[in-house]
Design goal:
The complex is a heterodimer of chains A (148) and B (424).
Chain A: H1 20-24, H2 33-37, E1 44-50, E2 64-68, E3 78-83, E4 86-93, E5 100-102, E6 111-112, E7 119-129, H3 139-142
Antiparallel strand pairs in A: 1-2, 2-7, 3-4, 3-7, 4-5, 5-6
Chain B: E1 7-12, H1 15-23, E2 32-35, E3 42-45, H2 47-52, H3 64-68, E4 73-75, H4 79-93, E5 98-103, E6 106-110, H5 119-134, E7 138-143, H6 146-159, E8 163-165, H7 170-177, H8 190-198, H9 204-208, H10 212-231, E9 248-258, H11 260-280, E10 283-294, E11 305-316, H12 319-333, E12 340-348, E13 351-352, H13 355-361, H14 364-384, E14 421-423
Parallel strand pairs in B: 2-4, 7-8
Antiparallel strand pairs in B: 1-6, 1-7, 2-3, 5-6, 9-12, 10-11, 10-12, 10-13
Classes of the chains: A mainly beta (148), B alpha+beta (424).
């Protein structure tokens, strides 16, 4: 079995190895999603997913991904990369000179990373946020500014 | 040895342009120009645009030819984006040292606590961390005084390196001074430089060897301070020094830990002071930053440093609007249970005050009200002394005004509706 895949009845204890202190700061206050989702505020960005290439990895159109630039991309990470001047979401596989970007579709050819500067790792995807009730665009998009 | 000072100036390379290319990588290496508030003139150019002949200060309509040919991408100033990324850069830098933000894209750091041998390594680590965490490329100048650090930073950009150390070798420094003209020095403006040229003083080396009396006579006390700083005598602490032409700052270190009430009071005073200066110079600010930190030398106490930058809907010099923004900023960063030691307020993105500008964003009525309040305060203060009246917590409703800007970039990091789309 692939490492890190939860088996029924044994939930992973803490998926991304959070430092406990980040959560303890809020121990006596109401739970705060920021404390859970954001480990490095200065390096965290959000992006909206468009396209079906990562669907088998559970990432779909309309999802919001949390991207942490401070984390070093390792094989297996889902990352944001710049590919031909565009921001794309892919899985990074392989090691050393053999690194490649793959989609979750078996039909897509992997993009092998070379010294070519047109491909760079932009950041590592740490969480996926999916609205279940509101269809895309999410209700959030239409929310009035708080002062009105 | 222990009281030897070392400062660094960390400066982002073409900061505004980098903020745009970070989220639109297709623009990487392309010709990009950023316009001032209201699309007046060029305030930032990418290296490629510079090669084509695009210059800062150029009027927007001069860019039409390039734009028609599709060779130049133009953005209106997107302060929300610059403010957020600038704040991220400062947050990363604060992990390394005490930081004093000097303008939107420049910060001073006090590296005195690092051993001599490690300074350059620390500076390099700062560059790497900022680039990785925020996507913004920065260069660092190091010196025994803030003035020398600033000069080192000017040189680092010319040398296209990331770190330049003028702190370690005074002889090397003096040799370099012979090749640097006085107008490159922080705090020596065009007019002061002219005076020196007339006296036959061209290089920094000539300047530091002038007798104090002559420097003082020609350049005044300020010029003398700058000269001493160039000689390597630190006179400016982290929060002091010549003002940036791009920003106005007020900062102080508290003698004892300040509680929240005192911080609020201090912010109000700083903003009032800074606004007086902005108004005197007929300028308006595009953004305001409030920063605070605990005493980092008291390692045992809980530490917290934070900064908050707020973009203003339109450039303003209204003490009332700026005070409100500063209070909001303070409220966002202050945490209970910390003994705050240092507080700073910074007005950024200074642009000439335009009387017409207000009318675009505020209704006639609001504008008149704003003016009446400000004039009344100024009159009373002029008559009874500066601090007779300053603004308390006056409520105000944010207005639905927006700037005239035809080439707006999405505010990638501050609006959910405008976050970048990533292709899957």
């Amino acid at each position: 079995m692939e490492q890190g895949t939860p088996t029924p009845g044994s939930l992973p204890r803490w998926p991304t190895g959070f430092p406990s202190s980040a959560l303890e700061d809020y121990a006596d206050a109401r739970l705060d999603l920021n404390a859970l989702l954001i480990r490095h505020p200065a390096a965290t960005f959000y992006m909206l997913v468009n396209g079906s290439a990562m669907e088998h990895d559970g990432i779909r159109t309309g999802d919001i991904v949390v991207v942490d630039r401070s984390i070093e991309a390792r094989p297996g990470h889902v990352i944001i990369a710049t590919l031909d001047g565009q921001l794309v979401i892919r899985r990074l596989v392989g090691d050393g000179d053999q690194r490649a970007l793959v989609t979750s579709r078996a039909t897509d050819a992997p993009v092998v990373l070379t010294e070519d500067l047109s491909v760079t790792v932009w950041g590592v995807v740490t969480w996926v946020i999916r609205p279940l009730l509101a269809p895309f665009p999410h209700a959030l998009w239409e929310a009035p500014p708080p002062h009105e | 040895m222990s009281d030897e000072k070392v400062f660094a100036l960390i400066d982002a390379n073409t900061f505004y342009v980098s903020c745009h290319t970070l989220f639109e990588p297709r623009l990487e290496g392309q010709a990009v120009a950023v316009l001032s508030a209201n699309d007046g003139n060029v305030v930032a150019v990418s290296p490629r645009a510079k090669c084509m002949g695009v210059r800062r200060g150029m009027a927007a309509y001069h860019l039409r030819g390039w734009r028609a040919q599709g060779r130049l991408t133009v953005f209106s100033s997107t302060w929300a984006l610059y403010a957020d990324l600038s704040q991220r850069v400062v947050e990363v830098l604060m992990r390394f040292a005490d930081i004093e933000m000097y303008s939107i894209d420049e910060s001073f750091a006090d590296l005195s606590m690092y051993p001599v041998a490690e300074r350059v390594k620390v500076a390099q680590a700062m560059c790497e961390a900022v680039a990785r965490w925020t996507g913004i490329a920065v260069a660092v100048g190091i010196g025994p005084t803030k003035t020398i650090a600033k000069l080192a930073n000017t040189l680092v950009k010319r040398k296209r390196e990331r770190v330049y150390d003028l702190a370690t070798d005074p002889y090397e420094r003096e040799r370099l001074y012979a090749g640097i003209t006085v107008d490159d020095v922080w705090g020596i403006g065009a007019r002061t430089a002219q005076k020196l040229y007339q006296a036959g003083v061209y290089s920094v080396r000539q300047l530091i060897h002038l007798p104090d009396a002559q420097v003082r006579q020609m350049l005044g006390v300020r010029g003398l301070r700058t000269t001493w700083e160039l000689r390597g005598v630190p006179l400016f602490s982290l929060t002091q020094g010549p003002a940036s032409p791009k920003s106005i700052s007020r900062a102080r270190v508290f003698g004892r830990p300040a509680h929240e009430g005192e911080l609020k009071e201090a912010v109000a005073v700083f903003v009032t002071r800074a606004c007086e200066k902005v108004q005197r110079n007929h300028l308006a600010a595009s953004a305001i930053s409030v920063s605070l930190s605990t005493n980092t030398f008291r390692k045992r106490e809980p530490q917290h440093s934070a900064a908050c930058l707020i973009e203003l809907q339109a450039p303003t010099n209204s003490t009332r609007l700026l005070s409100q923004a500063a209070r909001d900023a303070l409220a966002r960063i202050v945490r209970e249970g910390y003994a705050y030691h240092r507080l700073g307020v910074l007005l950024l993105g200074l642009v000439p005050e335009e009387p017409v500008q207000g009318s675009l964003f505020l209704s006639q009525e609001e504008q008149a009200r704003e003016r009446r309040i400000m004039t009344a305060i100024q009159k009373i203060n002029a008559r009874y002394g500066r601090d007779t009246i300053f603004l308390g917590t006056v409520g105000f409703t944010p207005h639905a005004w927006r700037q005239r800007a035809e080439n707006c970039s999405p505010r990638w990091t501050t609006r959910w509706r405008e976050i970048p789309v990533v292709q899957a």
